[in-house]
Design a protein that fits this description.
Number of helices: 14
CATH superfamily of the largest domain: DHBP synthase
CATH topology of the largest domain: DHBP synthase
Bound molecules: threonylcarbamoyladenylate, magnesium ion
CATH class of the largest domain: Alpha Beta
Distance between the termini: 50 Å
Strand order of the largest sheet: 1-8-2-3-7-4-6-5-9-10-11
Subcellular location: Cytoplasm
Number of strands: 15
CATH architecture of the largest domain: Alpha-Beta Complex
Structural class: alpha/beta
Family: Belongs to the SUA5 family.
Strand content: 15-25%
Keywords: ATP-binding, Cytoplasm, Nucleotide-binding, Nucleotidyltransferase, Transferase, tRNA processing
Function: Required for the formation of a threonylcarbamoyl group on adenosine at position 37 (t(6)A37) in tRNAs that read codons beginning with adenine.
Shape: globular
Organism: Furfurilactobacillus siliginis
């Protein structure tokens, strides 16, 4: 199959393929999604095949209006409505209990719940409206690889396997949406993203559980890579904490190979970079670092022979929690030890 590249103005043509049950990758403000008609079970099943994704891992349902959520989900709580008003369209995915029989097992992985997202991207909102059905959209990467933040990343992983890609340039945020479970009494964050627990708590006036901390507590340091098969480049990533940079680069200088460096500009300019180290800029702060993270990991894998990357660590504040969550997974939780 030849994968078409659609311009962000070619919405009707992309919608036609989706209506015919084909797969078309679409842009969002976070990362690119692999789209299929959420109400077409055969199409949804092909999403798992194209990505090589385990079929029990449920998909996010992307909508362009709140009415679609109301039709599929059990009556929404006041907290849910407040969060929609505050954050939609935007990077907050919410899990709700479903009405019986409305979505296939292929979407839900057999759960009674589904994740809903109203992305902040006008091209994709127009695409969903043109299809007339919600779209499933896991990140449009091969399962286990860093999520795609450009149409070129999608093509690298899925060229020849899907009907098309709607190219809307690089995504803004760069890390996937916050996933918030609203199906139980206490809302719980299952995946950190640009919308933080504190922002959610401020809107609903209720404490939010942050499950990822519990996952962290159970970590087995012996084999962190076993647990973290996500976002993994072929290269080994070493996270470098504040204060360890001079030693990290002194260590790098002694290695007999080329190394990669993912680092913010100000920090780079304070350091002397050894000749065998290639720097990739993460911009000026943790927000731009989140935007560039997956592109940087892919750059070293796809465009160089580099097998070891030193990457800048940040504190867990704000979007830093999402950045560090993805970076730790890509590094198998490995830090440079001074
Ligand atoms: O930013 C994003 O969320 C991107 C863009 C394309 O919208 N999508 C994305 O989808 O990251 P995906 O499939 O790569 O990640 C969705 C996450 C998975 O970890 C999945 O297990 C979880 O959400 N999930 C989906 N439905 C769920 C459900 N009903 N209950 C619990 N977790 C769910
Ligand atoms: Mg994903």
């Amino acid at each position: 199959m030849e994968t078409k590249i659609f311009k962000n103005t070619e919405i009707e043509a992309a919608a036609k393929d989706l209506k015919a049950g084909q797969l078309v990758a679409f842009p969002t403000e976070t990362v690119y999604g692999l789209g299929a008609d959420a109400l077409n079970e055969t199409a949804v099943k092909q999403v798992y095949q194209a990505k090589g994704r385990p079929s029990d891992n449920p998909l996010i349902v992307h909508v362009a209006d709140i009415q679609t959520v109301e039709r599929l989900a059990q009556p929404l709580s006041d907290a849910a409505k407040k969060l929609m008003t505050a954050f939609w369209p935007g990077s907050l995915t919410m899990i709700f209990n479903l009405r019986p029989g409305v979505l296939s097992k292929a979407v839900t992985g057999g759960l009674n719940t589904a994740a809903f997202r109203f992305p902040a991207n006008d091209t994709t909102l127009a695409l969903i409206k043109a299809v007339g059905h919600p779209l499933v959209g896991p990140s449009a990467n091969t399962s286990g690889k860093p999520s795609p933040t450009t149409a070129q990343h999608v093509a690298h992983d899925l060229d020849g396997k899907i009907a098309g890609i709607v190219d809307d340039g690089p995504t803004k945020v760069g890390v996937e949406s916050t996933v918030l479970d609203m199906s139980t009494d206490q809302p719980a964050i299952l995946r950190p993203g640009a919308v933080t627990a504190a922002e959610i708590e401020a809107v609903i006036g209720q404490t939010v559980a942050t499950e990822i901390h519990q996952v962290g507590a159970k970590e087995t340091p012996k084999a962190p890579g076993m647990k973290y098969k996500h976002y993994a480049p072929s290269a080994q990533v070493l996270i470098v904490n504040d204060g360890d940079w001079a030693e990290a680069l002194a260590w790098a200088a002694k290695q007999p190979v080329q190394l990669g460096l993912m680092i913010t500009d100000d920090r780079l300019h304070q350091l002397t970079v050894p000749r065998n180290v290639e720097a990739y800029s993460l911009g000026q702060d943790v927000t731009t670092a989140s935007h560039h993270l997956f592109d940087g990991l892919r750059h070293f894998d796809d465009e160089t022979d580099i097998k070891d990357i030193l990457a800048e660590g940040f504190s867990n504040d704000g979007i830093g929690l999402a950045y560090m969550n993805r970076l730790k997974k890509s590094a198998g939780n490995t830090f440079f030890e001074a």
